[in-house]
Write a structure and sequence with these properties.
alpha/beta, 204 residues
């Protein structure tokens, strides 16, 4: 009885199939990308220009040490959820005259003599330790930015009866609309974001 020959498997196209499967998975698979934090870096300072002299009462200093402890104005220990209100009170104080020599007629603060004189002179300075954890630093930064955004939101509603977020969105969709640009710039000028992030140092 003769033995039957076992047919050979043609593997010549297996490499092509494997290659096609590899391309398929590369094309269809999604990969998580760390988008990072969108932040516009300040331009390089001109060494020939002297920085302006700031009065102490016009600077709101926030220190974050290596343990995540937050010290505001060198005397008040605060939690993250308390920073925004303290920053808003400082920015909105309106205790004097601005750069143009006029008082802040739209500020709703207490007009304390020991606090900022005008939003266009009020600077928030964030100082962290070299060992400060990234998470707490971002939380503090977000709260300070929220203070500016909420004050701008208030002014947008007062001036134009429209949300500042919606106003920004419409301005981006219509970049050639000068009226929208003027509205956005007007709100920003009322509360300019003067947020200074100092170089990290060793804070115990």
């Amino acid at each position: 009885m003769s033995r039957r020959d076992i047919p050979e498997i043609n593997a010549g196209s297996m490499a092509d199939i494997a290659f096609l499967l590899l391309i398929f998975f590369l094309v269809t698979t999604t990969m998580d990308i760390d988008a990072g934090i969108p932040r516009k870096l300040p331009p390089k300072a001109d060494p020939n220009i002297k920085p302006p002299i700031l009065k102490e009462k016009n600077v709101f200093i926030v220190n974050v040490n290596k343990d995540g402890v937050i010290l505001v104005e060198g005397k008040d220990y605060m939690k993250v959820n308390q920073i925004k209100d303290a920053a808003m009170a400082f920015l909105d104080n309106g205790g004097g005259k601005g750069k143009d020599g006029n008082p802040c007629n739209y500020c709703e603060g207490k007009r304390l003599e020991k606090s900022s004189v005008h939003p266009n002179k009020a600077v928030i300075s964030l100082q962290s330790s070299r060992s400060t954890k990234h998470g707490i630093y971002i939380q503090v930064t977000n709260e300070l930015v929220r203070a500016y955004n909420e004050l701008r939101e208030r002014e947008s509603q007062k001036l134009y009866k429209e949300s500042y977020v919606d106003l920004l969105a419409r301005a981006k969709k219509n970049p050639k609309n000068e009226a929208l640009k003027i509205k956005v710039e007007t709100v920003k000028e009322r509360f300019p974001m003067l947020l200074s992030e100092a170089e990290p140092i060793k804070i115990e």
